[in-house]
Amino acid sequence: MDGRELMTIGEVAHRSGLAHSALRYYESLGLITSRRTSGNQRRYARSVLRRLAVVHAAQRVGVGLDDVCRALAAIAPDPEHAPTKREWVVLSRRWRPLLEARIRELEQVRDGLSMCVGCGCMTMRQCAIYNPSDELASTGAGARRVFPHD
Question: CB–CB of 13/19 below 8 Å?
Answer without folding.
Answer: yes
